[in-house]
Amino acid sequence: MVRQGKPATSRPAPKRTVSPAVYRRRRLFVGVALLVVLAVVLGGLAAAGVFRGSTEQASSTQSTPPSGGETAVAGDPTSAPTAEPTPTAPATPTCDQNLVTVAAATDKTLYLADEKPMLTLQVTNGGTVACEVNMGTSQMEFLVTSGTDRIFSSKDCQAKSEDLVKVIQPGQSESANFPWQRNRSVEGCQPVAAVPGAGGAYYVYTAKLGKRTSQKAVFQLQ
Question: Which has the higher per-residue pLDDT, 21 or 121?
Answer without folding.
Answer: 121
